[in-house]
Design brief:
The structure holds two protein chains of two kinds. Chain A is α/β, with parallel strands linked by helices. Chain A is about 40% helix and about 20% strand. Chain A has helices at about 1-20, 35-50, 65-70, 85-95, 125-135, 160-165, 185-195, 220-225, 245-255, 255-265, and strands at about 25-30, 55-60, 75-80, 100-110, 110-115, 120-125, 150-155, 180, 195-200, 210-215, 230-240. In chain A, helix 6 (about 160-165) links the parallel strand 7 and strand 8 (about 180). By secondary structure, chain B is mainly α. Chain B is built from 16 helices and three strands. In chain B, helix 10 runs antiparallel to helix 13 (about 345-360). The chains are: A alpha/beta, B mainly alpha.
């Protein structure tokens, strides 16, 4: 008798919970860039704490993953740290009949990470290209000590990887001894633990390591805003159609003062 | 009734042998009515109260259960074959691109630039089709140094260049299909020496299986070389030397270790083990195949241990007792009598471990550095087949050449593990059995 009451109680609790989660709460899925995942999570948390009736799910996985999910229809919003390619827009058009909507939501200066104990402080774009394509292999060729340069990079599903390849390597191949790590946090961890390491990634992750100047220019807010830092880029959100309803409110909030203040908090730079 | 039983007890014992042949056992069932012999059959007291007296009675639940098990078995086999077929079919996309030919200067291709509408960014200049307009709308202050001309152009439009899709590196639109020769042999030259490159994303994608296969093999061999001796010696200890109470504790705890999630092992290797290895051995690469092999060993030891322990425990007791009786020590018994007798089982354990290690994804994804290098140095990064699939599958465009190549890697994994198991099962085990059981 007692057991029946307990079982009945549990079953009713579960059904009530599932029903209430299905009713009323709007769901928005956000997938994509690993560079933007901290930012997207912070936005989602703050927004959900203010508007209780909406539930936002944020996942990482890389820009490529997010764009593929947008094309396949498994996500509403896609975060990307690189713009969509023509071939991807074409696929989206074939599948859904729209070209998609691009929303730049933050600016980022791609930071070059160096270990804290590294004496090198400045690298030119040409040196960066030569280091990552394998022409320069020793730190003493760029002004450091006599040690082999250990290259760390992202996996090739990452927007950061593609952006770096297009803009810094100008389309050349990465050196085959470049180690590919699954995520910016892994790159930061590897460079922090390896005295001869060099890596790259978003500015928000730079903890425990130091960043190097590129062409003598620091990645500060002013330099990125006026475009003098050579590897600065927009961070995008892509949608299939123009936003309406709850999604429109969320995106307007992100582009408004509160959302952009959060961008500053995390370490990126506001879009305006 | 009782006296019948006691009386015919003796006769039943005498006639026990008679009831072992089928014809006599079922002689008095209804089925044999036409052929029933006329002579009187002695009553077997053991059969009077059992339904087997009438032969195999038809139980509906038994019948349904048998049919159900048959259906499940055939469905699973059909399912496995369907998976094989699906993987090979998807892998054929690798060969459906354009045949490789001379590539024209692809940047001049007049493809229409699809421009997306933008939302919410009022003061960011609109994208135009003509690149000249873009260059005029410089974002803020121009750098005053004219000497570094490339910084000039890069700095003033680094942001806008990113948004301008018309200057995107255009590919020909039709992807070059991967050829078997490219996959298997050297496909690029670095500094004049033939080398194998895996760079699927880029202007000219480069696919090659050699570094991936080599990497998987290297990590597996290192893992097995570390894990197999430890596991086999542990199994020998548990079976032959450990007191009973210790055995009851050890066996379940190592079997629980088999359920350890491989992500946690990979994470542990990445954060802690790699630093320790680098400090001990002074390696250049912090994440290398040795660290991956160590992680693999942690994952594979419980499997080899369990199967070896079962094999050793199922060696017939008379062999062990005979050896001990003839004056052998415990170690001599274990190493020279029991272990050789259990060799087929030990061999099967190692093959199982190899299969597990070859397809392991998460550990190698985190702990080996994923650089597709081919060399004999165990302190260099490697890229395994399973880690490649794990890292790249999520982003790849559907039905592209890259997609097909990834499925081809999966098919290769299938084929390798399957053929290894088949060879081990059908060929080597029989020979080992014959040798060690003296037939």
């Amino acid at each position: 008798m007692f057991r029946k009451i307990i079982v009945l109680g549990l079953v009713s609790v579960f059904t009530l919970a599932s029903i209430s989660s299905l009713m009323g709460a709007e769901k928005i899925t956000v997938k994509g860039s690993d560079t933007m995942v901290i930012l997207a999570q912070r936005w989602a948390e703050r927004y959900m704490s203010k508007n209780g009736n909406i539930s936002i799910q944020v996942t990482g996985g890389g820009s490529g993953t997010g764009i593929t999910a947008l094309i396949n229809g498994t996500t509403d919003i896609c975060n990307a740290s690189r713009p969509m390619k023509q071939s991807e827009i074409k696929k989206l058009k074939e599948r859904f009949g729209t070209l998609g909507v691009e929303i730049p939501c933050a600016k980022d200066g791609l930071t070059v990470y160096l270990n804290q104990s590294n004496s090198v402080n400045n690298l030119s774009m040409q040196q960066l290209k030569d280091i990552y394509t394998g022409k320069i292999t020793n730190w003493n060729q760029v002004g450091g000590k006599n040690a082999k340069i250990m290259l760390y990079s992202r996996e090739n599903n990452s927007g950061t990887y593609v952006y770096f390849k297009d803009n810094v390597l100008k389309g050349a191949d990465y050196s085959p001894s470049c180690q590919n790590l699954p995520g910016t946090a892994a790159v930061v961890n590897a460079v922090a633990k390896d005295v001869n390491g060099i890596g790259y990634g978003g500015a928000a992750y730079a903890k425990g390591i130091k960043h190097s100047k590129v062409n003598g220019i620091e990645p500060t807010k002013e330099n990125i805003k006026n475009g003098s830092y050579p590897i600065s880029r927009y961070l995008y959100m892509y949608l299939r159609n123009k936003p309406t309803g709850a999604m429109k409110k969320y995106i307007d909030w992100i582009l408004g003062s509160e959302g952009q203040a959060i961008v500053n908090e995390i370490g990126y730079f506001p879009v305006k | 009734m009782n006296e019948d039983i006691t009386k015919s007890n003796k006769s039943a014992e005498d006639k026990d042998i008679k009831f072992t042949t089928n014809s006599e056992f079922f002689a008095d069932t209804e089925d044999n009515q036409g052929k029933r012999p006329e002579k009187e059959k002695p009553i077997n007291p053991y059969l009077i109260h059992s339904p087997l007296k009438y032969g195999k009675k038809f139980y509906i639940s038994e019948f349904l259960a048998e049919r159900f098990i048959q259906i499940v078995a055939f469905t699973s086999i059909a399912f496995i074959l369907a998976i094989f077929y699906y993987v090979f079919q998807e892998a054929s996309y690798a060969f459906r691109g354009e045949k490789p030919k001379v590539v024209q200067n692809s940047v001049q291709k007049k493809a229409e630039t699809l421009v997306q509408e933008s939302y919410g960014s009022d003061n960011v200049p609109d994208k135009q089709e003509k690149p000249e307009l873009l260059q005029q709308e410089v974002y803020g202050a121009e750098p005053s140094n004219p000497a570094t001309s490339d910084t000039n152009t890069v700095a003033s439009s680094s942001l806008e260049k990113g948004r301008d899709k018309s200057t995107e590196l255009q590919t020909t639109g039709q992807e070059k299909s991967a050829t078997i020769a490219e996959l298997l042999f050297a496909n690029d030259t670095i500094q004049g020496k033939a080398s194998y490159i895996w760079q699927p994303i880029g202007e000219r994608p480069k696919y090659s299986f050699i570094p991936l296969f080599f990497g998987a093999f290297k990590v597996t061999v290192i893992g097995l070389l570390i894990a197999a001796p430890i596991a086999i010696l542990a199994a020998i200890f548990t079976t032959a030397f450990a007191p009973r109470w210790l055995r009851e504790i050890m066996k379940p705890s190592i079997e629980i270790l088999a359920g350890f999630p491989s992500v946690v092992i990979g994470f542990f290797c990445l954060i802690t083990l790699a630093t320790i290895v680098q400090q001990l051995f002074g390696t250049t690469f912090r994440l290398n195949s040795f660290v991956g092999g160590l992680g693999m060993a942690i994952a594979v030891i419980p499997i080899i241990y369990t199967v070896t322990e079962d094999a050793l425990a199922s060696v017939p007791k008379y062999m062990k007792e005979a050896s001990l009786a003839l004056g052998g020590s415990k170690w001599q018994t274990a190493y020279r009598v029991v272990l050789p007798a259990a060799t087929p089982g030990v061999f099967a354990a190692i093959i199982l471990g190899f299969g597990r290690a070859f397809g392991e994804t998460m550990i190698v994804l985190m702990a080996t550095g994923n650089a597709a290098l081919v060399s004999g140095d165990i302190f260099e990064s490697v890229r395994t087949m399973a880690a490649t699939i794990g890292a790249e599958m999520a982003e790849v465009e559907f039905h592209s050449v890259h997609y097909g190549v990834l499925f081809l890697i999966g098919a290769l994994l299938f084929v390798v593990t399957f053929s290894l198991n088949a060879i081990a099962e059908f060929w080597v085990r029989k020979r080992l059995l014959k040798r060690f059981q003296g037939k």
